[in-house]
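=== RUN LOG ===
request id: a7f3
mode: sequence -> structure
chains: 1
length: 259
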Amino acid sequence: MTEKDLLYEVKDSVARITINREKYRNSISGQAVDLFMAYLDQAEKDDVVRVVCMTGAGEKAFCSGADLGGAMIEKGGGKNNAFQNYANLLKRLAGYSKPTVARVNGYCLAGGTGFMLACDIVIAKNDAKFGTPEVNVGLFPMMIGALIFRNVLKKKAMEMVLLGEKLSADQAQKMGLITRTVEPDKLDETVNGVLESLSQKSPIGMKIGKDAFYAMQDMGFEDALDYLCQKLGDVAATQDAVEGITAFIEKRSPEFKGK
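=== RESULT ===
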């Protein structure tokens, strides 16, 4: 996989990462995982970027998972590095400091499910298909299970991973896998509207908030409340919070600087 197979573009405060292998249903290789990490690092350091959107090229697939004929699945010692790199990418996405949006334009299967679930918001065409078919080729959706079980009730998650059947967008939404579904011709309009809205929020407020939510998810109830109370104080002390409250009182749009 080359850089042309994974595209990166920044426009209107949005960094877009596109898996550009339409011919292969946007499957992804180990090399692409490394490049994906590099793009995430680049977007995080760029103050112009306020939100990251990931998608697949074309109209048929978001991401069909690992390239079964390539380096992502191979015999020998190298496979462990490829698997660990993919796990590291999921951790990077799930704990990313800027809001992330998955634009699901078609099939979202296997490892693609991991990319999708690691994003904060998932918007999908209502004719998209979802699933974890690894069991059908003698594998199992291991790393993405950590994300599946944090989004879906246990019994539904087990049914999904054990049967390996494809799910409709409606089923995926009811299970909690995705945020919303839209008509295919409304996908870009809806995604762009969400991206624009996110780009106008306080970058530092969202960063502190995201970090706090991920940090407290495994805490006990009272510990979580105390921790979030402390983090609210951190947010309230930012210049953006002062600007936001002032703008509200003055009945104008805030001008957030990320400080």
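=== NOTES ===
Residues 203-249 form one domain.
The CA atoms of residues 7 and 142 lie 27 Å apart.
=== END ===
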